[in-house]
Amino acid sequence: MQLVDVHCHLESEHFAGMLDTIVEKAKRVGVVALITCAIVPEQWELSQTISKNYKEVYFSLGFHPWYIEESFHDELKKLTDIKDDKYCAIGEIGLDAKTNIDMQLQKKFFEDQLSIANELGKPVIVHCRSAFNELVASVKRVGTLKAGGVIHSYSGNVEITKQLIPFGFYFSFGGAITFRNSKKKVEVLKFIYPDYVLLETDSPDIPPVEKNGEINVPENIIYVVRAMSELIEKPEEEIAMVTTNNAKKLFNLEI
Description:
9 helices; TIM Barrel; alpha/beta; 38% helix
């Protein structure tokens, strides 16, 4: 199987000094590409360096809604200055109604980054928690995404999904589905399969149930494939092929 982890955070301090091993173990289970997502400007240079060191790693740069500050407005232009063939997306960006960051400030940064993605012709990698109505409204204000995007660790229902697909969104699933306890996620998976589904780990966060309590790593994507196979009753090999082709299409990956 060839697998793509469309959302991980190799910049994390949990992985410092261990990336050779982490990437090699991911390759052994079939991972042929990983997208590491920076969440603050201080990580952007590290993201680019990691991608230079590992041919399987692509990178995405953005301002995560948990960490935005007014002063970061001056940093936005830097997203357009970076030239690198492995700079594949703007993200992780988004909206989160459960954080204490002002929603109007979140919307401003989110919409500015959507516009930058359109300017650059890159897809977006989106975090959305309890803010799907706000997300739809923001995308409508900016306009349909020229290069599409993905909502990672997706938690929306089928009705929200129907609203998001016309804007060019795909939907990725990670460790949360391995708990196999969400009827809503199964309904969404069956609705979007095979055209709009992607795989992720969000490592070092949200480990699969098989590794509960441990630091998550990209090789654990095999548990996500296994759970998805059980939940939608499709062969693991088919899921791997479908999701890898979707990732290649969305992010223009050279695999």
